[in-house]
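Quick one, probably user error.
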């Protein structure tokens, strides 16, 4: 545990992740501009405000700080003895995860829930207790795979966003996740976990979606819109979100359907968006 409130230092993070031969050519003013773009000062204020709380208690404190209220439906559909894989849509890219940690952590405790996340989020130290980093490269990738496998084999509840990326604006004007990855279905069946579909009702500002569409039209591979997510978090102050937990999908029933995991993932995605 850190000795004092953690501070995000984008300069150090980027220098540590970039090869030295690349990082030395990145001007300091570029990184300073990125620090302003991601609202680094505001994020650090949130971290100081929440110290020394951790896990779901930190998440609750952050929601209070941002004056976020939650309407939660369907928790009574979950049994205390169940081992679940929670599969949620991913509309916000920050607050949706924090809110789900607050809700599920309060029910199961920090030792009873794990959240599969991008390894970059491990820099949010107060939430490390409940995070499982996904890293596909090198020795870190092997270590991450072992940790994920151990969590799936345990009695802890596991949560993930199967889309991987935040919801996008589609050609028909709707906002929803991209195609869900199939891994969560295969993991659930292998480790005999029932899948709980979760619908998180929320959206980002149109600036985020338009940036994503223009980036795609320009053929840029780097998801530059991701840099706007901290700003979206700060802009969400005072909002109300609705979370709906659906009936658990039996892993036995899913296996008995004989469909490939990709098809089952699409079925569960549809069920998520049909939850009321």
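Nope, works fine. Designed sequence:
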């Amino acid at each position: 545990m850190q000795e004092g409130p953690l501070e995000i230092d984008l300069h150090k993070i980027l220098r540590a992740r970039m090869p030295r031969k690349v990082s030395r050519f990145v001007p300091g003013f570029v990184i300073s501009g990125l620090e302003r773009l991601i609202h680094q000062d505001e994020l650090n204020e949130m971290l100081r405000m929440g110290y020394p709380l951790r896990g779901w208690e930190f998440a609750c404190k952050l929601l209070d700080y941002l004056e976020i209220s939650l309407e939660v439906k369907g928790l009574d559909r979950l049994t205390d003895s169940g081992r679940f894989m929670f599969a949620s849509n991913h509309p916000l890219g920050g607050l949706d995860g924090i809110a789900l940690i607050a809700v599920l952590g309060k029910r199961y405790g920090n030792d009873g829930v794990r959240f599969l996340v991008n390894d970059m989020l491990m820099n949010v130290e107060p939430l490390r207790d409940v995070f499982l980093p996904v890293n596909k490269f090198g020795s870190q990738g092997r270590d991450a795979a072992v940790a994920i496998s151990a969590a799936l084999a345990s009695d802890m509840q596991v949560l993930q966003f199967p889309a991987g990326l935040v919801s996008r604006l589609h050609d028909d004007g709707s906002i929803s996740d991209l195609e869900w990855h199939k891994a969560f279905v295969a993991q659930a069946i292998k480790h005999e976990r029932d899948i709980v579909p979760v619908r998180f009702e929320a959206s980002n500002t149109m600036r985020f979606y338009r940036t994503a569409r223009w980036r795609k039209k320009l053929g840029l591979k780097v998801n530059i819109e991701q840099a706007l997510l901290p700003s979206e978090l700060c802009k969400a102050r005072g909002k109300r979100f609705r979370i709906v937990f659906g009936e658990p999908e039996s892993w036995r029933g899913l296996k008995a359907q004989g469909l490939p995991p990709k098809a089952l993932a699409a079925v569960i995605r549809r069920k998520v968006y049909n939850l009321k």
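Strands lie at 69-73, 84-88, 113-118, 131-134, 157-160, 168-169, 175-176, 194-201, 240-245.
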